[in-house]
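Continuing the series of single-chain predictions for the mutant panel. This is the parent chain; the variants come on the following pages.
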Amino acid sequence: MYILDQTNEWDVDLTEFDVRNEEIKNQRKMLYDYFVMKASTLDILVYNEDHLIKKMKKFFKNKRVKTDHHGKCYKFFLDDVTRSWIIANNISECTSVLYDENNKVIADINRHVKFYEKVNLPCKVMLVKDLPIQLDFYMLEKDRDCDVDLKVQAKSYFISTDYDHIEQLAFETIESLYSYPLSIYIETHDGEQDQMQRDWEKYGVEYIDSGQRVLTLSSKGMYHAEVPGFFLTIKNTDGLRGVFEELFYLAYQNDTFIVSQNKLEIRTGRNRIFKSDDEMVLTFDHDAQGIVLYTAQNFEKVKSYFTNNMITHVQQGS
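Parent structure:
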């Protein structure tokens, strides 16, 4: 399997980013046009039908096909006139799947541009077994909202990807950054203290009162419910997988979920702070839209942990 190399590690504020971005767009169109000329049919997935798609539906033979996605999918039957129109109007940013005369996929164009034959085109392509996860980096020298205090002044690296890949990214990053045993700290909900201690005993579960309180409604009225905290010791890959299967929902719903090599020190209370002597601590952004790394390491060093991924966007915050 081949893919277009869409790596762009230049900061978005630099001219070099724009140059590289334009190069990627041109190569994407080049590949799209190449496979349009070879294809017999073309599926296009749309969420909002723009004027180009409406024109295509009006003038060229097509039919609606079922899809598991929320959008609509149209299959276009390609002849010379249709191919020429597509190339002239550049729809290469559309999510598309191209098929040969035997209804075999020859190219799949989404965030990745994926195809199955070697092409003689001036494009930078990669031969891969699996699709690399595409990453966006956003870096802050000083994060005022950070509640993790490392021994040295830490930067904040916000690393995001497609929502469908966030668990895989988090899992692989944890295994890359840390060795076993490692420590995970989570916060759950009032009333779960006993159950958590029973269910996670083999993880050396340790319960603490985080000092956080949440205004909660019960049958007896409003009260300030405790937010219980738990330390878990993860001894191996199976243990980490078990935590992800059973507890990763906490990250999705914005409950605290922090990974470190060694157990964090915690100063409890309304403005609780986590302290660590580790070089790097991992947690999650809002709704687990990305992972957050707290570390004093520079970007080049942090980037080296993600060589199996594809960095497509880098931005330095103030």
